Amino acid sequence: MKIGYGHMGTLTMVVELLLEELGHEPVVPHRPTRQTLALGAKYAPEFACIPFKIVLGTYLECLERGADTLLSGGGYGPCRAGMYGEVHGRILRDLGYNPQVIFLFPPLIKPYHFFKKVSLLKGRCSWFHLARAIRKAWTKLTFLDQMELLSQTKRPRELTRGATSKAFERGLTYLHQAKSLNEIIEAGHAALAELDQVPVDPAADPLKVGIIGEIYVQLEPFANHYIEETLGHLGVEVRRSIYLTSYTRHDVLSTKGDMSSRSLAMPYLNQKIGGHGQNSVGDVIRYAKLGYNGVVQLAPFSCIPEIVAKSLMPYLSKKYGIPVLTLFIDEQTGPTGIQTRLEAFVDLMEQRRAQTREGARMQTGSAV
Amino acid sequence: MGMPRALFYYTYYPLWKAFVEALGAEAVSSGPTNKETLDAGIRETVNDACIPIKLYHGHVLDLKDRVDYLFVPRLVSPGGSYTYCPKFLGLPDMIRHAGMELPPLIDTRLNLRGLPGGLNRFLRATAAALDFRNPFTQARAMRHALKQYALYQELLLGGLHPQRVFEALERGASLEELKGEALAAPPDRPAEEGLRVALLGYPYIVFDPFVSADVYHRLKHMGAAVLTTEQVPASAMRRMSRVLPQNCFWHYSNRVCWAALYYIERKAVDGIIHLTAYACGPDAMVDKILELEAKKAKLPYLTLTIDEHTGTGGVQTRIEAFVDMLQARQEKRLKEAAS
Q: Given this structure, which CATH class describes domain B186-338?
């Protein structure tokens, strides 16, 4: 099968590896561009969220390049993403394409459905071969997450602006070329070493910001207008609430979700509301307790769970004393608008930090 | 106990009112939606929320100084694998943290998934929250309320507008009296006699005359018979739930899809109007599904999106044009049939 799929950050490379291992011909999606989004927005319902539109645009591009099957996945309600396979399929059929759509639901919620779809993907390969492929993919994913974490730490401290991003890109090409398990491990270490060699300013004292919100706009840099890079260059060390390995553990291979943040959210939102709504509430509290300087909530425009979460933000922000910036993203959002708001937010956090430090110094002074 | 006149009010009000009154408390509704309710709601609500949620906040504000308790239940699941919209799931939390000065909230959880008897447990929990703990009183109130609820559903099935029922209830009339009116409403007429339009959408939009610009009655004045989701029998809904390859997750959205499929299958309507709120999450999916199904059945289809700024003029023009087009189609068909 020639399989096309959506582009979502570093996951793209891992899916490519898996499909190749299973003997398929992956039609690897290009990084989304404004054309991709325009194409998707043209055929998508007006109020579908931006992940829907970007992915639809990517599918259309993949189909033009000869894909006959589309692979995707999502939760089983109440977030809309679980409907996307069905609705994408309908829209594409209406446009005259006839792709086979393989949409994976979480294995523990729809076990039989999942088994059937995996068997379909597996084709004639043995289960042992599948297990080996998954092991390779997991190793790659682990390295990619480590690289992201390291680059997030390095970027606000780098001496030459953009050096970290360049090293990160080089690391990605190393990992992309690695096919066997040994090669992957070697390439992963080489990529990490490459990032490690980026010269840093030892005296730098970056602000710390947690990025929370919906998964697609967190993970796909095109969707969030390269917010990690932008914040990094403004001298901010970012951490995301979602990394792919932890996401797989908490949300794919379990039905519970990330209990560390969900249990924090319980006193304020005692109900799973789909997507990452409850996580967003819990993550704000978690980052406040960890002493972060601020939180950026990312969500696609009209995302229901994140709107519910946002309605609690003013209260939480006041109660836990942490500034929260909510960015709702749609196809009209421009990079300049985001840049301006982030700059203002960074200024605000810097002032707050200076004030609290001043206050602390005064207090110790008067105590003496 | 105060009940805001928004969202699930249109589905459950007679049930809750009968229950609360049989217990010995008083049920107070907020007034009908008007400009003030809407403006107050817009002020209090997070700006990305949809208009029905903003209205709910507005109705809460309208009630808050007149009642001892506010009834803001958390509707989780109507049974099966379905849920309500995530905003319904988080509604009590949104209301609580919106920064309004409020009387105590009663936020009982309605979850009909899993063990049977969920509705009974929900009602008992509500009674307990109001401090009516006598199980016999509870049981009696429950029996009475469920009877009223069945009657209400029957009236809706007969094509009665919920506002008519609410007015009667406020007058103190019993639902029995309205029964004649419901039956007098025309049942399925053959297609040759006048136009029939399916007006599909969530009951809290379709039946709210202010926010929907009263599309329902406008259509009636133009001489069209209006069919809504409430006129589809429950058995038909169940049958339609097996038609689509994948249903939606949300109760009200499913009802819209299934009603559309039902009317399409029965060839019961000449056109479909989908009434939706601006930036409604589930409706983005529902609208596309309906559009493609209507296209397949070669039925005219109109999406009417309403928001805070919808003017009655714009709505009037659009439905007039739609009805004119339907009439032209019907005349052409009749002419062809005659020749």
A: alpha beta
Binary contact (A273, B48; C-beta < 8 A): no
Are residues A215 and A357 located together in one domain of the fold? yes
CA distances B9 to A134, A287, B3, Å, are 50, 38, 8
Nearest to B1 by CA among B94, B107, B133: B107
Closest CA to B22 of B155, B182, B168, B138: B138
The verdict on A199 and A214 lying in the same domain is no
A115-133 pLDDT, tens per residue? 999 999 988 889 999 999 9
Q: Is the pLDDT of residue A331 over 90?
A: no
Same domain, A228 and A367: yes
Task: Calculate the alpha carbon distances from B280 to A304, B9, B69, B205, B308 in Å.
Answer: 8, 19, 29, 12, 13
User: In angstroms, what separates the C-alpha of B87 from chain A's closest C-alpha?
Assistant: 6
Least reliable range by pLDDT among A167-171, B28-32, B42-46 = B42-46
- Its domain, for residue A155, covers 129-203
Chain B residue with minimum CA distance to A313: B97
Question: A78, B283: Cβ pair inside 8 Å?
Answer: no
| Complex ipTM value | 0.87
Q: Is residue A81 within 8 angstroms of chain B, CB to CB?
A: no
Structure tokens at B181: 């009116």
For A164-207, the pLDDT digits (tens) are 999 999 999 999 999 899 999 999 999 999 999 999 999 989 99
Its pTM stands at 0.90
3 state SS for B65-87? CCCCCEECCEEEECCCCCECCHH
Contact indicator for A214, A300 with CB cutoff of 8 Å:
yes
For residues A291 and A267, membership in a common domain is answered with: yes
